Amino acid sequence: MRSIPDEQFRSWSHGLLRSDEGSYASLFDASYDALFRYALYITHDKAAAADILQDVYLKLWQVRETIDPDRSLRALMYQMVRNYALNHERQRKRHAAEAIEDDHPSVSFDTVNDDELDAAMLKEHLERWISEMPQRRREAFMLSRFEGLSHEEIASLMDLAPKTVNNHIVLALQHIRKKLDAFRDNEFFVD
Amino acid sequence: MPLSAGLPPLKTESTYHLTDNALEGLDEAQKRSVRETWDLCGRVIPVATSDSKAELRARLMMQIQPVHQTSPSPADRPALRLIRSADVFRSAAYRAVSIAAAVVIAVAIIFSPDGTHYRVTPGSGAQEVTLQDGSSVLLAAGSRLTTSGSFGDTDRNVILHGEAFFNVTEGTMPFTVQTVDAQTTVLGTSFNVRSWPGSLSDMTQVIVETGRVAVAVNELETIVEPGQALTASSDILTPVVTNPQSRLAWRNGGFSYDNELIGTIIDDVERRFDVRIKAPASIRLRPVTIHRNEVTDASEFIGDIAATISVRFRTTANGFEMYLD
Fold this sequence. Notes:
The complex is a heterodimer.
Chain A: H1 6-17, H2 21-43, H3 46-62, H4 73-98, H5 119-132, H6 135-145, H7 151-158, H8 162-190
Helix pairs in contact in A: 1-2, 2-3, 2-4, 3-4, 6-8, 7-8
Chain B: H1 28-41, H2 53-64, H3 85-88, H4 95-100, E1 107-112, E2 115-120, E3 127-130, E4 136-139, E5 144-147, E6 156-167, E7 175-178, E8 183-186, E9 190-195, E10 204-210, E11 213-217, E12 220-224, E13 229-233, E14 236-240, E15 255-261, H5 262-273, E16 276-278, H6 281-284, E17 287-292, H7 298-308, E18 312-316, E19 319-323
Parallel strand pairs in B: 6-7, 16-19
Antiparallel strand pairs in B: 1-2, 2-5, 3-4, 4-6, 5-6, 6-9, 7-8, 8-11, 9-10, 10-13, 11-12, 13-14, 15-17, 18-19
């Protein structure tokens, strides 16, 4: 979505105001993947992310006549995904509190065999380290690193000061680096 | 060994920059370490995609097509075949109106590899269609129904936008009606599904006449017995207590509402008679109870509603306006 010019979003906004199905379809095609990833950053659940996107796109059509083309449609869509995803998380936590939760102990990787230590392996670990971070830190970091949103955009989306966004991102990188160094030391130890 | 040895190269779309500003306050070694990590993460960009994207797109596009469409335009879909109403459906209980409307296309049927689309023109009255498995469906004006591409072969799935009464033939494959927020599954029975996305009361409503029906929303599922009705919204299934059978009055050209918002009734009247009705929110949000068996004239029915709640109405170029003094 980062690579799509604002002008294009404005034209989609005008299309939605006219109830133009073609604009809606082309906006769907261009925005779905990025928004799906965003829902996934928050929920960690593909099925939930798919449901959230269904709600978001349906809602978008329902409110199409209220869209203001002078405001960023891109920001609106991220905001809608965020609201639905956080709502989903709240409900999930409520349900989880009621049920007796199965505890999945985190897999220890200090028995890593260095033959397996290839790019795919490191990628997998990186994904795990990212997923271990607190939700808001992960969200800020992934929007910045993988979706290319500016600190200002993330700040306004998450209702944080830009400085806080920056702290989240730097702390996230330091967290990953610490894990990485420990992982590598361990690799040499096995050697 | 460099940090990123053995990893795929940076993906161009992911080469966002970590500005110096962002690293203010760190010493040089820390800055380098953070930058290297930033770079490393750019090589493992998550490529998660959803398996349901295409399916959701198809469902959304069907659901958003305009409700007020005077007649389908063959010119827009040159590769598809339109069949005139007289060729394909048996007129149901709404015979008188169907005959009056026989000069226009009342049901457009479009065949394509990914399913058969049925669309009932607003203003044309309820229309009955028979599906490949012999099940019959009475579709309210303005409704759309799409069968799956594999309907009758490996499944019996349909997507509904609007309102329909299903009479499903017994079969080993379950018959499933997908609406925007719910999924209704049966083996063989008769039941009514109503779902008008974007209307004031846009939750899916299911009424069972015979047999048992399973309604599912997300992970929730419940069984509806004959004579029962149910309203489904995104995370709750609510039984409807008041006389569900009266809500089937539309099948015979009637209107029947218990404590229903006038806005919802107006939407139904607009579709049934292909008229536009203007009314302020103060009127639309008022609930009313009204039952009429056979309504053949929109102005009479609108007049009745206006009288019930003591507001005024007048005719306009393409319909009516309800207003307060």
